[in-house]
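Researcher: Batch entry, complex prediction.
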Amino acid sequence: MARRSFLGEFELMVLLALIRLRDDAYGVPISRELERHLGREVAFGSVYAALDRLEEKGLVTSKLGEPTADRGGRAKRYFRVTEDGLREVRATQRALVSLWKGLPQLKVVGV
Amino acid sequence: MNLRKPPRLASWLLNRLGFPESNPPLAGDMLEEFQSGRSRAWYWRQTIGVIAARARNNARDSRDGLIAVFFGWFAQAIIAGILWRFHLPSPIPMFGVAFRIAIVPVPLIVGLTYGKSGLKRLRSAFNNCEDACLDRLCSVTERAATISRRILPSHLLVQVEDRHIVLAANICFVFLGNYCFFALWGRDSLPWFLATEIFCVVAIGFLILLRPPRFTR
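Model: Structure tokens for the complex:
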């Protein structure tokens, strides 16, 4: 079987957030989207580290927007999922769904 | 527009130790969130998170370098302990060794944080300097300059990799640490300790040479 690298849990979440946000995917909305679904604070450092790794793997691309005054003259960095990224998400989804199927009902003690 | 100002020290740390390549958008994102009502504590937490994420990334990229540095430090600590035990009896013999081991994370963190970017800047400065020299040479003899330009970058700058920079920074800190150590305790065994350091530098050098390069320019 050919070796391939799988997406990490956080990388997958970031990719899914990018897909949900479509054209408005820069640091702030990505973090808010993740926070909304995870229910906890997300570190910008972790988000950017994951995005940089995904860009290195060719799963996302980024481009700089215009600098704005309310951001201290700093530009936004917009991210977009590539075709390879979408393929990777689908492959991960298939693997997870397949693993999930046939599992006995999970019971958590005390819940 | 009346903008809230984020903690000055946190901003300074973010600019100095944050991701250099994506820092402007990242700092902009943090400022935008801060302006939307986040607390100063949030800004601090995010800054620390950015620095930690960068250190993690660098550690992963410089794994071989880290192994070499740890090996060097460990060997040095053992030899220093032996020398201390048999040649330099002290009222608190293990204190020196404990001190040396205790400060291991300091050069590692500083080396990982500044080593890579500092070396890249140095390399780029060297390239610029070389270009300037070659341009001058060009006015004397264009042919010699052209040949030099082709040969120099591929032969003088070969194999200078990020991990070498990290190691060099760490070795500098080892030497600096020793000088501080002897300045504080006033021992007369500096040659012995310098010999130990030289041994470690050679050992680290061999370790680097034995391992295949992982980074490209």
